[in-house]
Amino acid sequence: MFRSIARGCAAGAAGTTALDAATFLDMALRGRPTSSAPEDVVEKVTRKAGHPVPETEGRDNRLSGMGALAGIAVGVGTGVAVSLLHRLGVRPPVWLGGPTTGALAMALADVPMAGLGVSDPRGWSATDWAADALPHLAYGLVTYGLVDAAHRRS
């Protein structure tokens, strides 16, 4: 089981790198700004938990760092979950498992945003959806592809 967890961590980290690369490529090509959604989610969660980030110098940088760390945690955690499911015998082919893994990670990121009122995906344009879905597809293909390959080798 430890091997499956370690494989999931590595696959999730690689997938997160693919997601970030696809996102940054989109920003570079279209000239769009970075999203403040991760920081906004962290801000709302810490407030609801009764431990808001203090209103001090560097607060925005702390929120930015915490937002990025939350994204990494979702990516690595999703990789672990997928690896453990794979170990238990849930092994769709990569053409299905990759997009499904990406959709799971996308839901884990977007549902809290919607639930906290940070963003409402129902009002997103097709371009907004593509800017979210394509990097998550890259995440899913890399993460699930690595999980599947690692389990086949063992």
Question: What does this molecule look like?
Answer:
The model has no long low-confidence stretch (mean pLDDT 94). The protein has one domain (2-49, 57-153). The protein is an all-alpha fold. It is built from five helices and no strands. The two termini are 12 Å apart.
Quick description:
The chain is mainly α. It is built from five helices and no strands. It has one domain.
Overall 3D shape: globular
Q: Tally the helices: what do you get? A: 5
Count of individual beta strands: 0
Mean pLDDT: 94
Main sheet: strands, sense, barrel: none
Q: Low-confidence parts, pLDDT < 50 over ≥5 residues? A: none
Topology record:
Elements: H1 2-30, H2 37-48, H3 59-87, H4 94-115, H5 126-153
Helix pairs in contact: 1-3, 1-5, 2-3, 3-4, 3-5, 4-5
